[in-house]
Write a structure and sequence with these properties.
Blueprint lengths: L1 H30 L4 E5 L1 E17 L2 E4 L5 E6 L6 E2 L4 E5 L2 H40 L3 H44 L3 E2 L7 E2 L5 H25 L8 H27 L9 H50 L4 H40 L2 E3 L4 E6 L6 E2 L6 E5 L3 E8 H4 L7 E6 L7 E16 L2 E10 L11 E18 L3 E4 L2 E8 L2 E12 L4 E6 L6 E6 L1
Antiparallel strand pairs: 1-22, 2-13, 2-17, 3-12, 4-6, 4-11, 5-10, 6-9, 7-8, 10-12, 13-16, 14-15, 14-17, 15-16, 17-21, 18-19, 19-20, 20-21
């Protein structure tokens, strides 16, 4: 009983000490900040690889067939010929596909040109929005005020020019009446002016009455011009000048009829008649010139007035602050321009996909030698119709050995004839690398341990005496490449409810952002198509 009590005395302090230690650890852990690893999204080249293991065996011939049927248009080889890898052997008719490819390529160029226009329009709209938000600079106001000042000067000059032409119109009218036609009047400035020669009575009466009326017109016109200035009512003076020129022109036309009908007689010589005709003609020419000059001066005045009004309006607009409505409207213009750019980028992407599709279809109409070797079978003839997957060419490899490997069902879709690959042989370790190429893929599956696999044959690109039959080969097949794409470690991408997210670190805060992913490479990286930008810091794991 005493021993039991002693043991309890030992256990109780020990238990209390353990509890204290655990509490300290828990509290210490609670005080720690959350720790995590990060990576930076950056542009890199991604290479997708499929890794398999195979065995070296003596080389066999490679049998080649078209993936799709058609009519043979060209044959470039025959039995016994030596060929090199990539050499063109047989071609099916593909002129229609070639035309479609050219059209698709033109579509890409056209779409890219349209994109450049949309991008320029976007930059313009963004600049306008920035100007609205910043407001008008004093320099811009000063420039516009200078334009208004210049427009006022131009208007003043136009008014002065109009006054000169109005005065000139009076001078030419006065000369035409008092110097050119008054020479064949008696008492021309009096109350009863009379022609000095006889003409048609009605014409004579008409001329004499018009001469009487125009005298008062010239006097009042002269009086009004004594005080004319740029501050006068130039519209009124202009209308008066136009009316008076018409009145003068009418009298000259009547006078021309009269003198042109004169014949020499005892009281008037031919010389006098000719002088009358010349003076009347000169007067008419001067009045026409005055009329044209007056019209031109009026047009200059109207133009100067319009320019001044425009520059004054522009000045008022320049000084005015942008309203909320104007900024909102401009923001809408920017969004529309951005939408145009995004839409056009999508069209370019689709256009490029069409080009790639036609390239892929054309590639199926040609047979190229996958390796260096010798043609052992060639049954193609120009004009012959061949079916898909019918062997028409066989090629014996120039290499002595090849590799056979079984690729799992999950990876076989990534592998194509012609893919490059690198292999190491167990006999020489990982530092010795040999180049190989996929030359054949069996269409039928091979079941290994209950898993469907497909036999893939590789040919060595170069002959090497170190290669021996039966050696174990470790092969990395390059199935796809993407250049200059944004990528992050695959561990940074999480999936929730069928959507993919990454956690972007900003300062000490993290934010989940939905992303669209693309190709995964063989080194744990994954392509990011949408969602984050080059240089963003993403969280990989939390501690």
């Amino acid at each position: 009983m005493i021993n039991i009590i002693k043991k309890r005395k030992v256990y109780i302090p020990a238990i209390i000490l353990i509890i204290i230690i655990l509490g300290i650890v828990i509290l210490s852990n609670r005080g720690d900040k959350q720790k995590f690893d990060t990576a930076v999204a950056q542009r890199i080249d991604l290479t997708q690889e499929v890794s398999v293991t195979g065995r070296v065996k003596p080389a066999q011939s490679v049998e080649l067939a078209f993936e799709k049927g058609g009519k043979i248009s060209a044959v470039y080889t025959d039995v016994g010929k030596q060929v090199f890898a990539g050499q063109l052997l047989i071609v099916l008719g593909n002129s229609e596909l070639a035309a479609q490819l050219s059209q698709a390529q033109a579509g890409v160029e056209s779409a890219q040109a349209q994109l450049a226009q949309y991008q320029a329009a976007l930059e313009t709209q963004q600049a306008k929005l920035e100007e609205l938000k910043l407001g008008t600079r004093p320099e811009e106001v000063q420039v516009q005020e200078t334009k208004v000042t210049n427009a006022k000067t131009s208007l003043e000059d136009a008014k002065k020019n109009l006054i000169v032409q109005i005065q000139d119109a009076y001078t030419k009218s006065d000369d035409a009446i008092r110097n050119k036609i008054d020479q064949f009047f008696l008492n021309p400035k009096g109350a009863n002016p009379q022609l000095t020669f006889f003409t048609d009575s009605q014409l004579e009466s008409d001329i004499e009455s018009k001469r009487l009326l125009i005298e008062s017109t010239l006097k009042s016109w002269q009086t009004s011009l004594e005080t004319i200035s740029t501050s006068s009512d130039l519209e009124s003076h202009l209308d008066t000048a136009k009316t008076n020129l018409i009145q003068t022109k009418n009298l000259l036309e009547k006078s021309a009829l009269a003198v042109n009908g004169l014949l020499p007689n005892s009281s008037i010589s031919q010389t006098t008649i000719d002088a009358y005709k010349s003076d009347v003609s000169t007067g008419r020419t001067n009045i026409n010139t005055a009329t044209v000059n007056l019209t031109t001066a009026e047009e200059k005045l109207r133009t100067a007035e319009s320019i001044l009004k425009l520059e004054q309006d522009n000045l008022a607009l320049t000084k005015a602050e942008a309203t909320v409505e104007q900024i909102t409207a401009q923001e809408a213009q920017v969004k529309q321009a951005e939408a145009n750019v995004l839409s056009q980028q999508a069209q370019i992407k689709q256009a490029k996909a069409n080009v790639n599709n036609y390239f892929a279809q054309i590639s199926k109409t040609v047979i190229r030698a996958p390796i260096n070797g010798t043609i052992t079978k060639q049954e193609a003839k120009v004009g012959e119709i061949v079916s898909a997957n019918t062997v028409i060419v066989s090629l014996m490899s120039a290499s002595q050995f090849e590799i056979e490997a079984n690729v799992p069902e999950a990876d076989i879709a990534k592998v194509n004839v012609g893919n490059d690959a690198k292999t190491t042989l167990d006999a020489y370790g990982n530092d010795v690398v040999f180049g190989v190429k996929v030359v054949a893929i069996d269409p039928a599956e091979t079941i290994i341990d209950g898993v469907a696999t497909y036999k893939v044959t590789f040919q060595f690109i170069e002959t090497d005496e170190r290669i021996k039959s039966g050696m174990t080969a470790n092969i990395d097949i390059s199935t796809e490449k993407r250049e200059n794409v944004i990528a992050v470690p695959q561990r940074a991408v999480v999936t929730k409810n069928g959507e993919k997210y990454v956690r972007v670190l900003t300062g000490e805060e993290t934010k989940e952002i939905k992303v669209k992913t693309g190709m995964r490479d063989s080194y744990g990286n994954i392509e990011i198509l949408e969602g984050i930008n080059d240089g963003d810091t993403v969280v990989i794991t939390f501690e």
